[in-house]
Amino acid sequence: MPKTCDRSFRVLLLATALGIASAYPAIAASMPLDAPPAATADYSFQIPAQPLEQSLLALSRETGLAVMTGVQGASLPIAPALYGRYTVDAALDLLLAGSGLRYRRVDGQGVVILPPRKSPEPLTALEERQVEARPLLEEIEVIASKRRTNLQHTPMAITALHGELLRERNIDSLEELAADVPSLQVTRNGDHTTSMLYLRGIGSDNHTEAGDSGIATHVDGIFSSRVQGTAVLLYDLDRVEVLRGPQGTLFGRNSTGGVINYHSARPTRDWSSEASVTLGSNQQKKLSAVVNAPLTERWALRWAAVKQTADSPLRYTDDSIPASAADRYNNTNLFSHRLSSDWQVGDALNWWVSFEGFEDRGAGSLPIVDYDTPVTIDTPGRTELDQDTWRSRVELTLPSAHTISYIAGHSLTRRSQDWDADRESPVGSETDPALYHQSNRTVWSKYRAQQHELQLKNSDDETLRWLLAYFHFAEQNAIRFDLEHQLEDGSGWGGAPSHSFQQPHRGTRLNALYGQLDYDLNESWQASVGARSGRDQRYDRGGRNIACPDLIRADRGGELGVIAVNQASASPGQCFVANYNDVDRAWRSTTAMARLNYQPSDDALVYLLFAEGFKPGIVQDGASLAGSFSGMDDPAFQQSLDLLMQRNNSGAAYVGPETSTNVELGFKLVLLNRSMTLNGALFNTRYRDLQVSGIAVEKDGTELIRSTNAPSATIRGLELELNWASSHNGRVSGFLSWLDARYNRFYAVDNEFPEYGATWNPSVGDPQTSNLVDFSGNRLKQVPRLSLGLNYRHTIHLGKYLRATPRLGLHYTSSMYFDEANRGDRSGFLLQNSTSEWVPDPAGIARNIDRRPSHSLWNAGVKLSPLAGNWWLDLYGDNLTNALVASDVHDADVAIPAYYYGPPRSIGLRFGLQFD
Questions:
Q1: Is pLDDT of 27 > 50?
Q2: Separation between Cα atoms, residue 491 and residue 473, nearest integer Å
Q3: Can you point out the beta strands (E) in 215-257?
Q4: Cα separation of 413 and 226, whole Å?
Q5: How far apart are CA 67 and CA 214, in angstroms?
Q6: Mean of the per-residue pLDDT values for the chain?
Q7: Percentage, residues of the chain above pLDDT 70
Q8: Over residues 215-238, mean pLDDT
Q9: Of 185, 223, 742, 833, which one has the fewest beta carbons inside 10 Å?
């Protein structure tokens, strides 16, 4: 079977089970399974010669028939190929021919595979009915270790969700994925159309082009540096793998917190197609289609596409710019398609390549008070985001059974966006200096990235397995981002009511060597070691923050004119450079991993892991230029600029790298006669120089995204994952995550309340920096202490022709903070840092200004499908209690804080067709 056909998840159909009994006869059946298809019905089979167990799984998936066996797996022979249209009986006769095995139809039970007769006495019908297949879980395969392994035999903290499960639970976004993954949190940013990830408390809320998350995202092996795009829209996936904890030795892009791997469905060697339609609340419409076409015996194509739209649940006030619900903020307008090719060039060479395009034409995400409070909009939302990505993998199997792989990728992302930042100013505020007005606009941006990776590894069957790889990644970014922030007196930050942030050449270059050794000490013990060594470079060439004394859009039409070198050198009405951002820094690092595994049987695995992670430094806005100059030709200007760039490269325009060290004790158990898996990890991760980003207020009032390094933080936790085939027709899955994530030592300025940070955190008491407060002991943001998920589905048979599969899901999280300050509530009074006096808070009293209370989310659905047919119908409901759940806060210092909220209650209907 070609590797592309060797599915990573050997799926048993919903409501079927393949039992591999350890002895015969087994216990009598206790629950009914699907009724068998009619003996005269024929089906189209494309089953190659392979182990009989695999062929029976393929037959079960094609026919919807429950196939059970009382024969030990080791006793199952190789089955012949089966191509063409056959009845179930004819197909079974051919698959079992020459094996000596028999089968018998069991009313209401499907088909039982029986061993050869040991005596001339035939089994009675009653004895054959008593052959029962225990409810078993499907075997899940992952490639998290860069080798195809059984999930239960992989000594890593991994959550793997296969494509069928994603479709069943209606998981088509990162936010929905987080409800099924331990320790994963997702939040959104509005003016950059970005999803920000936190895993075990590690991530980044720097959403700019300089942002760099501690969670690395890969799509089909290609690192995705921009979170905008296809990672937000999940479709036609074979599986998603989430690796928790530092990943410093098996990925070229090192990560301190974890890795998310998306694996798209590969072309297969059989004709198939499917289409589905979703209709839901707020005029939600989703159309998706997949076509798989084998052009030859060795070459196949696959095309998949999805289009999703939905109206906004927001309401606008009467003095806003008029907009229909389809065009308001928080609407949805997404489209993506993917064309992939898989070509088996001879017996030793395979080439897979894909092109993916993504478009976002929504209005953007807007923070709100709640869904019942209307917003006032004077800047209509507009997003034009396009992302084109090529991915390729060439794999050659050498005569020595070694494998060499070349992995390459190229992506181009373009985005422009208009975003209303105040949500309270009426139409006309942009030209009235007596009205507060703020709008954020990405005038243009372009992100171009490329990756090259070469991997060499030996056979998976060796006692000593090794892998060696070289990784290269480069990205070049360019952006112009304009801010209008006019105060009621017509001024703004630093006396300028608008700024233009222009970074024409900001980029990244990564080069690394990494490798790993796995050695089987004996049948039960295995040791592994690995290392990564690389150079990570960040640079900004020609980046400038430009301040203007009037509004860019209202008064200048976006044109800035001749720009002065700094404020002191500017003429009245002239724009000037506020910050020079030139910087070029590189960091070398080496991280290591060591692991010891003990596997006393196929049903138990225990591992002890030591792993290091590294995240390179990140660039940020640089220093300001002092003095008065006649222009750029002034020799004194060039001399001062050289000194400024030295300051930038000495720390003014970047923050240093962060590192992590993780010690983890994990286990993976198969229980209850292989009907349950229970996986867990107990870990302690120590971070040094943890990068923390946020909006900082400069001395002149300018608001900039600033990053700093928290000297140390510790994250301790326990994670448990459960999968249980509670019966032939019932499935239970769930997780529990407990995290204790705190800063050990961290002195910083409260970004939201720079002069009053001592209200919530003790002052450091430094007379030179009176605004410095102590965050030591505070909890990390985006880390609930406790979170859990629980899902149950059960198949009910409706006569001889239909099955219904109802499901119910719960996701609970305890309270968490959105900021390092851990403020919680505002009492109506503020403690002034410099005087230690309490003064009235002009914004008044407010609760949970940066804290999300504990909450529960419920979802449910029921899927209806025929026992033998090509359609399905699914009725679903998400957030059934209509809970108002925030993922982040926008402003904590205003009278009524605004938050980024998850969607309200949604009810929908999905209909799908499958064709072979």
A1: no
A2: 43
A3: 215-219, 222-223, 237-244
A4: 8
A5: 45
A6: 86
A7: 88
A8: 80
A9: 742
Residue type, 910: R
The answer to whether the beta carbons of residues 138 and 151 sit under 8 Å apart is: no
Based on the number of CB atoms within 10 Å of its own CB, is 486 exposed (0-12), middle (13-18) or buried (19 or more)? buried
Write the pLDDT tens digit of every residue in 456-489: 999 988 999 999 999 999 999 999 999 999 988 8
Q: Which amino acid is at 186?
A: V
pLDDT band with cut points at 50, 70 and 90 for residue 415: very high
The pLDDT value recorded for residue 492 is 86
3-state secondary structure 583-648: EEEEEEEEEEEEEEEEEEECCEEEEEEEEEEEECCEECCCECCCCCCCCCCCHHHHHHHHHHHHHH
Give 540-571 pLDDT, tens digit per residue: 999 999 999 999 998 899 999 999 999 999 99
Per-residue pLDDT, 695: 57
Q: What is the 3-state secondary structure (H, E, C) of 799-811?
A: CCCEEEEEEEEEE
- Classify 212 as helix, strand or coil: coil
What does the pLDDT read at residue 109?
45
Residue type, 428: G
β partners of residue 83: 46
**pTM for the whole thing?**
0.84
State the Cα–Cα distance between residues 142 and 265, nearest whole angstrom: 14
Residue-level length of the chain: 916
Instruction: Return the C-alpha torsion angle 392, 397, 402, 405, nearest 10.
Output: -10
pLDDT bin (cut points 50, 70, 90) of residue 22 is very low
Contacts of 122 (CB under 8 A, 6+ apart): none
Give the bridge partners for 476, in sequence order: 448, 507
Residue 657: cis peptide before it, omega within 30 degrees of 0: no
Looking at the predicted structure, is the pLDDT value of residue 16 above 70?
no
How far is Cα of residue 368 from the mean position of the Cα atoms in its chain?
24
Query: What are 37's two structure tokens?
Result: 């298809």
**Rg of the chain, C-alpha, whole Å:** 30
Q: Is the dihedral of CA 642, 645, 649, 652 positive or negative?
A: positive
d(CA 698, CA 531): 41
The beta strands (E) that lie in 521-603 are given as: 525-540, 544-548, 576-580, 583-601
pLDDT at 213: 79
- Pairing mode, strands 676-697 and 703-724: antiparallel
E strand or H helix at 880, and its extent?
none
> What one-character DSSP code corresponds to residue 770?
T
Mean pLDDT of 153-175: 89
Region for residue 848 given its phi and psi (left: phi exceeds 0; alpha: psi -120 to 50; beta: otherwise)? left
Report CA 754 to chain centroid distance, whole Å: 33
**Which residues have CB under 8 Å from 505's CB, separation 6+?**
476, 478, 539, 540, 541, 542, 543
DSSP 731-755: EEEEEEEEEEEEEEE-EEE-SSSTT
What are 293-336's pLDDT values in tens digits?
Answer: 999 999 999 999 999 999 999 999 999 999 999 999 999 999 99
Give me the mean pLDDT over the 97-107 stretch. 70
* End-to-end Cα spacing for the chain: 19
Q: How far apart are CA 583 and CA 539, in angstroms?
A: 5
**C-alpha of 154 from chain center:** 21
Residue 500 carries which side chain, given as an amino acid letter? S
Amino acid at the residue 296: T
